[in-house]
Amino acid sequence: MSISRRSFIVGLPLVLGGCATQQPQEMAPKSSADDPYYLTMYAAIDTEPFAVPAIDLKQVNPRFYRQQVSYHTDEKPGTIVVDPNERFFYLIQENGKAMRYGVGVGKVEAFNFQGEARIARKAEWPGWRPTPDMIARDPERYGPLKDGLPGGAGNPLGPRALYLYRDNQDTYYRLHGTVEPWTIGTKVSSGCIRLLNQDIMDLYSRVPVGTKAVVLPSMAVVTS
Q: Is 52 within 8 Å of 167 (Cβ atoms)?
């Protein structure tokens, strides 16, 4: 079967997610989606090399909006903690607080990274290429994209990416944006942690290279 590179680019959000994503059944209550505080937080950004569209907050459950919360942990301030079961990402702060972001995680438990790593690289408007494992799992889908795609508008990684390394080796797991905001709070990716574009930009500005990241174990059965 012959598939053109153009066809892959048009359908790339589905390629990267590895599944057909749909609009969510559960929408944000009007009172949350129309809150000026969050409308400003997730407004369009036109100061970048490529436009960052506003988030339609009716597509995102309000529990996954960015907010400061109480969070007690033995990890030091500045550490990142990812909880794939609750679909939350925490940047630990002083005095038992954390900045919490909603995330999308791996759609299959085996795809999810676990344990400690470091942010060894940061990139603005990153390029994307499938990992060797992704190509091996689905050569028809990912093989034509083995050389990758440049960053920019429509690239599935969004405007920013943080790269997880362990023992100075690339884990191939990333923290990045998304062109599918309605997938935040779901199991959707090939293992990477995806955030709303405005959230990954906020996080990018807060964490330096060398930041410790802890990804908690992902459970097969999730209760919420």
A: no
- Using CA atoms, how far residue 198 sits from 46, 52, 112, 194, 201, in Å, is 12, 8, 23, 11, 5
Which residue segments constitute the domains of the chain, with CATH numbers given?
Answer: 5-215 (2.40.440.10)
Q: CA 149 to CA 154: how far, in whole Å?
A: 11
Q: How far apart are CA 195 and CA 189, in angstroms?
A: 11
- Bridge partners (DSSP) listed for residue 102: 88
157 near 126, Cβ under 8 Å? Answer: yes
Q: pTM for this structure?
A: 0.80
> 87-116: per-residue pLDDT in tens?
999 999 999 999 999 999 876 554 567 899
